[in-house]
UniProtKB/TrEMBL annotation:
It comes from Dactylosporangium sucinum. One of its GO terms (cellular component) is plasma membrane. Gene3D superfamilies: Histidine kinase-like ATPase, C-terminal domain, PAS domain. This is histidine kinase. One of its GO terms (molecular function) is ATP binding. The chain crosses the membrane at residues 171-190.
């Protein structure tokens, strides 16, 4: 199977190609500029030499002498050698050469442009003459009276210019090679860093991995938060956004505290708005290096509500079972008393418990027309009796059926009563829980008192907002659920010590009617 190139490998090859093209282009440009500079330098040289020769008194006198060639040829050749030019030609105004590096051309006409020089100007051009293509200059030779008595042409062949340029080639090649090596080294270092960051994966593999991970994150039913080392949320899937409401606000306080701590958590209950969430948090590592933490969240709001209702049903069932045993015992006693002929005592024993139960039922049903709440209070009274606790429903209790939704009423009253029953469990008699539910001035008042040890003032806020429990951390969510209902209805709660010991919790909720 052919191994595909990684992103780092592709980037390295692309960088090397681009840098090579840039260096090649830069080198070509540098060569062209160097060639232009060399031609400009050659032009300056030939023009300067030609001006110098044309102003030489020796040349001015020799061009008018009887045999100018004999006098000027040695001078011109010495000048040519000394100035490293390729030819120094001194000629008559009619183009007749007096000097030339090729002696056979002396006396022959000069080939090239001379008209501007005959008019007193200068000629600078690249022209192909007897020695090949050359950069040349032609200037006039003036006599003392200003007449043009001759011309001087000095030139450097193009081949000589190219040779001078070629002598610079090693330096250019060295600079080009150094640039390529530096660029390749930089590209290699960058690709190596990128390879570490991408773990040597290719584009197709990274695309497939992203698609898989994105699909998994959106498919899982648990909320998932990835938090970096600075405590910032780096990733949140759709379920986490839904559970925490991240689109509209910051993290809920309980979740933000857990995230900021960075500690490990296992099945820890946290409150987020109107939800009870179970959080699991773990630190993430790769190659021995900590990356941050991963927090998963499960919605247990419905499960907690169902669990609470199931606990109530289980408690009621156990209470009814116990009462059934007690009823059977009392029935046997009544039958025995009848058999013994003591019918009056049998009647009193049989009707006493019934009267007590009937009075409680009449009081609850007469005061609370909301059927679910009435059934809850009757069930809690049975649980309290089973635990040896007296549950008293205050005679001032009055509540209409439409005051608040049944579920919210059951949440508040049920959890407050459960909390009170737990508070008095194991304490010395008398063990009593009192309940008052009343609708008054557009609000619903729920007051539950107990004879237990009470709730310390420093624990009140934690108990209502974080699911804190005096039994063990993370166990109690009852008062926290009550606090949620209070905040949802814009109500308030108060915890005060009861007369003779214990605590009284008062909750006020705005009526829905």
């Amino acid at each position: 199977m052919t191994r595909r190139w990684s992103i780092a490998g592709q980037l390295f090859a692309l960088q090397v190609l681009v840098v090579s093209l840039l260096v090649a282009g830069g080198t070509a440009g540098a060569v062209l500029l160097a060639r232009d500079d060399a031609e400009d330098a050659a032009t300056d040289i030939v023009l300067a030499v030609a001006e110098t020769v044309s102003h030489s008194p020796y040349v001015v006198d020799a061009v008018s002498a009887p045999d100018p060639a004999a006098r000027l040829q040695p001078y011109a050749e010495a000048t040519r050698v000394a100035t490293h030019t390729d030819f120094v030609v001194i000629m008559a105004p009619d183009r007749t050469r007096f000097t030339h590096p090729t002696t056979s051309l002396i006396g022959k006409p000069f080939s090239g442009t001379i008209e501007p020089a005959l008019r007193g100007g200068q000629v600078v051009e690249t022209f192909t003459g007897s020695l090949g293509e050359s950069v040349r200059a032609v200037v006039p030779v003036r006599a003392a009276d200003g007449r043009i008595t001759g011309l001087v042409s000095v030139g450097i062949t193009t081949e000589a210019v190219n040779q001078r340029l070629l002598r610079q080639a090693p330096a250019v090649a060295l600079a080009t090679g150094a640039a390529l090596l530096l660029a390749a080294a930089g590209a290699w270092l960058l690709s190596r860093r990128l390879r570490r960051q991408t773990h040597g994966l290719g584009p197709a593999e990274m695309t497939r991995m992203y698609e898989y991970y994105d699909g998994v994150l959106h498919a899982v039913r648990e909320g998932l938060l990835v938090v970096d080392l600075k405590g910032r949320v780096a990733l949140a899937n759709d379920e986490a956004k839904r559970l925490l409401g991240l689109g509209d606000a910051d993290l809920p306080p309980a979740v933000a505290e857990l995230v900021a701590s960075g500690r490990n958590a296992e099945d820890e209950p946290v409150l987020a708005g109107g939800r009870v969430l179970v959080a699991n948090q773990r630190a993430t590592h790769f190659a021995g290096r900590r990356l941050g933490t991963v927090l998963t969240l499960r919605d247990h709001t419905e499960l907690r509500a169902l669990t609470g209702e199931l606990d109530s049903v289980r408690g009621l069932t156990e209470a009814l079972r116990a009462q059934a045993h007690e009823a059977a015992n009392r029935l046997h006693t009544v039958l025995t008393l009848v058999e013994l002929g003591r019918t009056d005592e049998a009647v009193r024993l049989a009707t006493a418990e019934l009267a007590i139960a009937q009075r409680l039922t009449d009081r609850v049903v007469g005061a609370v027309t909301e059927p679910a709440l009435a059934a809850l209070l009757l069930g809690k009274s049975a649980q309290a009796a089973e635990r040896g606790v007296e549950l008293v429903v205050d005679e001032e209790s009055r509540l209409d059926e439409a005051a608040l939704p049944s579920r919210d009423l059951i949440t508040v009253v049920g959890n407050l009563v459960d909390n009170a029953l737990e508070a008095v469990a194991g304490t010395d008699p008398p063990r009593r829980v009192t309940v008052l539910v009343r609708q008054d001035d557009g609000e619903v008042l729920v007051r539950v008192g107990d004879t237990g040890p009470g709730l310390p003032a420093e624990h009140v806020t934690d108990a209502f907002r974080r699911g804190w429990s005096t039994k063990r951390e993370g166990r109690g969510l009852g008062l926290a659920l009550v606090g949620q209902v209070v905040r949802r209805y814009g109500g308030q709660y108060d915890v005060a010590p009861a007369d003779g010991g214990g605590a009284v919790i008062t909750v006020r909720l705005r009526s829905a009617s």
